[in-house]
Amino acid sequence: MNDQRYYKRIIIKEKVESKYLGESRTAIIYLPPGYNELLTYPVVYCQDGEQFFNFGRIATQATRLILDENIEPMIIIGVEMKKNVRTSEYHPEGSRFPNYTRFFVEEFVPFVENRFPIRQEADQRTLAGDSLGGTVSLQLALDHPNRFRNILSLSGAFFEPSFVRIQAEQDLSWLTMYMVAGLDETAVQTDAGTFNFLEINRKTKKLLEEKKANIHYIERPGTHIWGFWQREIPDALRFFFGSIV
User: Fold this and answer.
1) Residue 78: exposed, middle, or buried by beta-carbon count in 10 A (0-12, 13-18, 19+)?
2) Which one, out of 10, 56, 60, 131, has a CA that is 20 to 30 A from the CA of 93?
3) Which SUPFAM superfamilies does the record match to this protein (predicted)?
């Protein structure tokens, strides 16, 4: 990936003020090659935004796919994550979870969609997240199906609250979810203990399929790190944005 074309892209940073969080959060906005404000674009919202851009290299990978494989151009938005409150904001039982999700839905998304030509249909918005970022992405879609219908989950940290939430649904046929899990994620150490993320994701897949969700599930050799997830991003982007004929 040494072609300099892949590194010539527009990335903008904006501060989003939040009454729910009591502070501002940075939005990292990637505009695709050939960006034209007179057109409209699908969007990917990335939790752990800086990590998706810095470690996942999502902007570089998207640019390559748009230029070389003719996939549909998309706008990619990264949401700033604060490490000291990440778990409390992303975990469904976290103390800051209600405020974070209100910030995301009522403040963050309207802020960027009022400034950039993003399509407003729910199936044109993709929520992306790794580990607990996948958890909050799924929760946002389940709570707001009229807004979000596509999810990219990289080794999602799905625990009992997520299982209960899925089981409470009657019909998830509107939901499309691309799930990646590592075959070596059988003993992942977290702040809350050590967990078998491979089995967690297999269980989540089964529960979602029982509710008729559209699941594209991938297991490959890999551990709970960005070195694994970075390799999976191109296939995920191909899945959601395909090739333009």
Assistant:
1) buried
2) 56
3) alpha/beta-Hydrolases
Q: How high is the pLDDT of residue 236?
A: 98
Domain ranges of the chain: 4-241
Tell me the DSSP string of the chain: ---GGGG--EEEEEEEEETTTTEEEEEEEEE-TT--TTS-B-EEEESSHHHHHHTS-HHHHHHHHHHHH-BPP-EEEEEP--GGGHHHHHSTT-TTHHHHHHIIIIIIHHHHHTTS-B--SGGGEEEEEETHHHHHHHHHHHH-TTT--EEEEES----HHHHHHHHT-S--TT-EEEEEEETT-SSEEETTEEE-HHHHHHHHHHHHHHTT-EEEEEEES--SSHHHHHHHHHHHHHHHH-B--
In single-letter form, the type of residue at position 57 comes to R
Are 178 and 129 contacting, i.e. CB atoms less than 8 angstroms apart? no
Average pLDDT value for residue range 55-73: 96
pLDDT, tens only, 207-239? 999 999 999 999 999 999 999 999 999 999 999
Select from 187, 132, 185, 183 the least CA-distant residue to 162: 132
Burial per residue of 196-213, b for 16 or more beta-carbon CB atoms within 10 angstroms, e otherwise = ebbebbeebbebbeeeeb
Q: Which of 133, 130, 45, 125 is nearest to 94 (CA)?
A: 133
Question: Per-residue pLDDT tens for 170-195?
Answer: 999 999 999 999 999 999 998 888 99
CATH superfamily name and code, 4-241: Alpha/Beta hydrolase fold, catalytic domain (3.40.50.1820)
CA angle 185, 191, 197 (to 5 degrees): 20
